[in-house]
Amino acid sequence: AQSVTQPDIHITVSEGASLELRCNYSYGATPYLFWYVQSPGQGLQLLLKYFSGDTLVQGIKGFEAEFKRSQSSFNLRKPSVHWSDAAEYFCAVASGGSYIPTFGRGTSLIVHP
Amino acid sequence: SQTIHQWPATLVQPVGSPLSLECTVEGTSNPNLYWYRQAAGRGLQLLFYSVGIGQISSEVPQNLSASRPQDRQFILSSKKLLLSDSGFYLCAWSVWVNRTQYFGPGTRLTVL
């Protein structure tokens, strides 16, 4: 069965600093990988996704993620964080045989001015 | 382009009252549809999913039910709400080819 681990419940960064949110998955074959962002009281918005090809994926709002098969990871990065990036971030994985992704528990990003 | 709507946005209901939350999708045909619940400070819990009209799969036995009367309409219901039904309810859609889920704006339900 597929599973996703987001080891950091909370991350605090200063505005302008770089960001990396960790995501590890468990699945035998090449997975479908996703990152979503959720602002308070709102639905989830897709930031980026990886299916195949180039392992460095560019998304919206200046985010990128890198798929590392050897580490079973799909970490989300941003070179310079803005105060508006404060939100909850969810990593998700779907297998080739299922259309239902498994979501991580989420990482809450706090941005200090 | 595709859009997904949920209503109401917020709802306050007494314990024991019925519930009906609606979700509709525009701009796509035969989507897979999903209902999730998100308790305060917690992750997503998949409640129901549907791959077609009248086809409902339940992930968690509980006080809730779902129906899909039309291709792009998904309804979450309860006959008698419990306090534990409070939470943020999210509807999502996807198509098989890319497994990507797109979420609605959510409904905040408070049961008193």
Q: What kind of oligomer do you see? A: heterodimer
Please report which band the strand proportion of chain B falls in: under 5%, 5-15%, 15-25%, 25-35%, 35-45% or over 45%: over 45%
SS-derived structural category of chain A: mainly beta
Return the structural class of chain B.
mainly beta
**Over the alpha carbons, how many angstroms does the gyration radius of chain B reach?**
13 Å
Q: Uncertain spans of chain B, ≥5 residues at pLDDT below 50?
A: none
The pair of chains with the biggest contact is: A-B, 22 and 23 residues
- The helix content of chain B is under 10%
Mean pLDDT of chain A: 93
Helix count of chain B? Answer: 0
- Report the average pLDDT across residues of chain B: 93
Give the number of DSSP strands of chain B. 11
Write down how many β-strands of chain A occur, each being a DSSP E stretch of 2 or more residues.
12
Can you offer a commentary on this structure?
The complex is a heterodimer of chains A (about 110) and B (about 110). Chain A has strands at about 5, 10-15, 20, 25, 30-40, 45-50, 55-60, 65-70, 75-80, 85-95, 100-105, 105-110. Helices cover about 0% and strands about 50% of the residues of chain A. By secondary structure, chain A is mainly beta. In chain B, about 0% of the residues lie in helices and about 55% in strands. Chain B contains no helices and eleven strands. Chain B has strands at about 5, 10-15, 20-25, 30-40, 45-50, 55-60, 65-70, 75-80, 85-95, 100-105, 105-110. In chain B, the strands form two sheets. In chain B, strands 2, 4, 5, 6, 9, 10 and 11 form a seven-stranded mixed β-sheet that branches. In chain B, strands 1-3-8-7 form a four-stranded antiparallel β-sheet, with no helix packed on it. In chain B, a hairpin with a 7-residue loop joins strand 9 and strand 10 (about 100-105). The model of chain B has no long low-confidence stretch (mean pLDDT about 95). The interface between A and B is medium-sized, with 22 and 23 residues.
